[in-house]
Design goal:
This protein has 509 residues and is α/β, with parallel strands linked by helices. Helices cover 40% and strands 13% of the residues. The protein is built from 18 helices and 15 strands. The chain has a 7-stranded parallel beta sheet, with helices on both faces. The chain has a 6-stranded parallel beta sheet with strand order 12-11-10-13-14-15, sandwiched between helices. Helix 12 links the parallel strand 11 and strand 12. Helix 7 crosses helix 9, helix 7 crosses helix 15 and helix 14 packs across helix 17. The longest helix has 21 residues.
Length: 509
């Protein structure tokens, strides 16, 4: 009998609900494919904002035999105007807008789920045996309980950052003890963690219970703690003591990552397809051909993620520092965050005068203006470093590919991720953002850290360390590994739900 087929012939249907951020779609889609590959039916529920990013990928998955269904949840016409909630180019001070958007999904989803269980949306699909909802949708526990459906919290972040963030928002930095050097000492963790001012959100040191994000995080945590299970896109060996801490505080957790395509765990694949369609790819072949002509581990890949951009001033400083370093680079360039209504033909207009022509002519750099094939770039032997915003997807991808980082966080838990990769697992060097200059990294500092990572002894040490972690990540997802076993266990737990069998306890890792 196939794993997802019950004795009465019915299918085990799992419903998935991501939050509004595009970045969270990637691990959600990877998870959907892995669950479907194990015989489950997956119903992927999204608003109109995400349909275009998922439609072609879901269709391709269905053609390969995976039982995945993409269903649009209707929302009121006066809610969630795309321009107001699209997280592209989002900076930390705009996060409350997307927080509100995530909160406003509660009533539409309640209405959707009512119609779904009544068979009004699709009579061909069975009611969901569980709801896998994003960690940013804490209210999903309340809605799921209303219909007697167990809620699974899908944590798309690392357990170090989640553990630190939970305590920091509960206690607030103004109430944290300080070390003699002025670092914030985070209590209640399995080991001492000290944060510099650079390793937390700009708003956090002065945050109070009246701050916009304080009640948001309190609501999310309260809702998520009522989940039947927590699954996390990480692997146990990378942050074991924080996985165990998070489980003690929040409930049974299954670490099932890194959630990436199978090709990402193979040696030097030519191309690795993205899980979602994040934009138009017009230069994949060109940029890979350019990489083919470069020496091994000689190129710095620069990307602040699919949802972020930096200021005009910072773009100029980064460009001039790169050029001065002499290091080869491949830069995913986006419109600056403060460009406003300025007229421009492309993001190249915001580079220093003559920069683009000089680096192209000298073949020092390659500029990508559209979507970048990030996994293929990181897997390429010419890529020797990754300047990143430290989103958790990027951390897992660069670890799996064995590429060290320059950690340059912009908002949210990225600052805690930066702390993790720099100080805990030691696979990155930190970009020295200057607080007194609006968090600017100067061209001189860019030149120094780029040379350090690509051309000097410090970079070699980081590269050795991340390659060790790469081997551990591969072992975790391989048959018999911790993440592979946890995913199998999670699927068996889902099947037990429908058969009303006793639940197993926390996994002994």
């Amino acid at each position: 009998m196939a794993p997802g087929i019950l004795e009465n012939g019915g299918m085990t249907n799992v419903m998935m609900l991501p939050s509004m951020g595009h970045g969270h779609l990637i691990p959600f889609m990877h998870l959907a494919m892995k669950l479907a590959a194990r015989g489950l039916t997956v119903t992927f529920v999204v608003t109109f904002h995400h349909i275009s990013a998922l439609k072609s990928k879901v269709e391709a998955a269905k053609q390969s035999g995976l039982d995945i269904h993409l269903v649009e949840m209707e929302i009121p016409a006066d809610q969630l105007v795309l321009g107001k909630v699209n997280s592209n180019s989002m900076q930390w001070h705009k996060l409350p807008h997307i927080d509100v958007a995530n909160q406003s999904l509660e009533d539409p989803f309640d209405h959707f789920l009512h119609r779904y269980v009544e068979g009004e949306i699709s009579s061909a699909l069975a009611p969901p045996v569980c709801l896998i909802a994003d960690l940013l949708l804490g209210w999903a526990s309340t809605v799921a309980e209303k219909y007697g459906i167990p809620r699974v919290c899908f944590d798309t972040c690392g357990m170090f950052s989640e553990s630190v963030q939970q305590i920091v928002w509960d206690v607030l930095p103004r109430n944290l003890p300080r070390s003699p050097s002025g670092r914030y000492v985070v209590p209640g963790l399995p080991k001492e963690v000290r944060l510099t001012r650079l390793q937390m959100l700009p708003e956090l040191p002065e945050a109070t219970t009246e701050s916009a994000r304080y009640p948001f995080w309190k609501r999310q945590r309260a809702g998520n703690k009522r989940s039947w299970r927590i699954i996390a896109n990480t692997f146990y060996e990378m942050e074991a003591e924080f996985v165990e801490h998070f489980q003690r505080v929040n409930g049974t957790i299954r670490t099932i990552g890194p959630l990436l395509p199978a090709e990402a765990f193979q040696d030097r694949p030519c191309k690795i397809a993205s899980a979602v369609q994040m934009g138009v790819d017009t230069e994949e072949d060109k940029c890979l051909q350019w990489l083919h002509a470069q020496a091994e581990a000689s190129v710095l890949y620069i990307s602040f993620g699919s949802e972020n951009s930096i200021s005009i001033a910072q773009t100029e400083e980064l460009a001039m520092g790169l050029e001065a370093s002499g290091v080869k680079f491949l830069w995913v360039l986006r419109r600056p965050s403060d460009s406003g209504s300025k007229a421009f033909s492309s993001a190249v207009d915001f580079l220093p005068e003559g920069f683009h022509d000089r680096v192209v002519e000298s073949e020092q750099g390659f500029i990508i203006l559209g979507w970048a094939p990030q996994l293929s770039i990181l897997a390429h032997p010419a890529t020797g470093g990754f300047l990143s915003h430290c989103g958790w997807n990027a951390v897992l991808e660069t670890t799996t590919m064995g590429v060290p980082m320059i950690a340059w966080p912009l908002y949210s838990e990225q600052h805690f991720n930066s702390k993790f990769v720099v100080d805990e697992v030691q696979i990155a060097v930190e970009a020295p953002q200057r607080i007194d200059q609006n968090w600017l990294v100067t061209r001189e500092d860019v030149e120094r850290i780029v040379k350090s990572l690509i051309a000097e002894e410090e970079g070699k040490k980081l590269r050795e360390r991340v390659r060790e972690l790469k081997a551990v990540a591969r072992a975790a997802v391989a048959e018999g590994g911790s993440s592979h076993a946890n995913l199998d266990l999670f699927v068996s737990e889902i099947m037990s739900l429908q058969r009303n069998e006793p639940e197993p306890g926390p996994l002994e890792m």
